[in-house]
Predict the structure.
Amino acid sequence: MKSAFKILIIWCISYNLANAQKDTKAILESLDSNKDNYAALAQELWMNPELGYLENQSAALIIAELEKEGFVIEKGVAGIPTAFTASFGTGGPVIGILGEYDALPGMSQVAEPEFKARVAGAPGQACGHHLFGIGSMAAAIAIKNWIQSSGKSGTIKFYGTPAEEGGSGKVYMVRAGLFDGLDAVLSWHPGDQNTSNPSTNLATISGKFRFKGNSSHAATAPERGRSALDGVEAMNDMVNMLREHTTESTRIHYVITKGGDAPNIVPAEAEVYYVIRHANRMEVKSVWDRVVKAAEGAALGTETQMAYEIIGGTYDRLPNETLARLMHKNMLLVGGVDYNDKDLNFAKDIQKTLSNPKPIASAAIIQPIEFTYGKASADTGDVSWNVPLAAIRAATWVPGTPPHSWQAVAAGGTDIGKKAMMVAAKTLALSAIEIYKKPETLIKVREEFNERRGPDFTYTALLGDREPALDYRK
Ligand SMILES: [Zn+2]
């Protein structure tokens, strides 16, 4: 009797295991069978890069695919024409998948290992968001197919999130309550290694400072002019002195976006665009306030007027180790990026142009879990303080490639980018399905989330109550 019971238990375990393996295999195969289609869609986005809040074609393309698959779409959410959600299924767990698609200005580049614009001055996918959008969409479709065929309870919600690069798109979506009621958000980002680290990054505030003076002939009537550019330069001087007196991990960057039209005209209008970052968002606020004082002082001293507009503001990321480990386990099942000879040759040529190349073979492996302090920022931070979130990185770029580089654009236009995109899609799909099958996992995820976030947390967006800066890239 006893041994019959034992046999039954062993049979149950192996039956479950076999079923789990069958599921995994089916998901991987279904994604593989559509990989050419997904690669073509990603290439279409890569060929037609669109800037933040202007991603009309990119969003429409992803919406059309998800609509075809039976997702319920809500377009133009949070007051943003290119933001949308796409849901499928009923009941819990409710899992969110994030997709981005915006490009970066002036980063146009051919898919070759030499620095050469495809269209001079045009935008380019230097952060790989074309892969991010399509890879996440592919995962959402695979998850939907599994929900449909398994008959299990669960909802998958894809978020089409525009203007990650400086536009803080997700912040408005969080503010509008679009992430309420979610159990977990799974995401990814292009990178040069395959990782699933429960990492933090930097909070940000960005804004444009606009100075107004009086124009005048720079030679015949200089005394009658007041230079708006002087205002900008005096502000920058003060901020550059301020840098020395900030705490560790402070980052301050600026570009002069308007500086006058001709040297013989005293510039009446000038503009400087700032980004402040720090690991601690309270510190970001404090440095921001000091930068505003520098702007006010500059205006006083140069007899110009100054007004500023906060453009973006994002939280640091709240890590969730439980979710990160779950994703890591599934990423190991999927494996890294498999280079063929063509990929290898491209990678070798790209590496000749990198100052810090990493071993090419590292693209094929999944890095061990490590807790890191990221130096970048993303609007996923705001999501992570509202819903437990984990984001992996997949090696869409040749190892050693920095984000926002021409080498990143180039790799994103080749098979390397598309292969890594499928590594991400598969990992997201397997991880979500594991949660639907074992919803009890979410108890630990939520406990860790509550503990890290602290008991008295209330969410207030760092960009305040401003409306989406829909014209920040115009
Ligand atoms: Zn990015």
User: Anything to note?
Assistant: Residues 127, 129, 164, 189 surround zinc ion (CB under 6 Å). The chain has a mean pLDDT of 95. The beta strands are 72-75, 84-90, 94-99, 154-160, 184-191, 203-212, 251-258, 269-278, 305-314, 389-395. The longest strand covers residues 203-212.
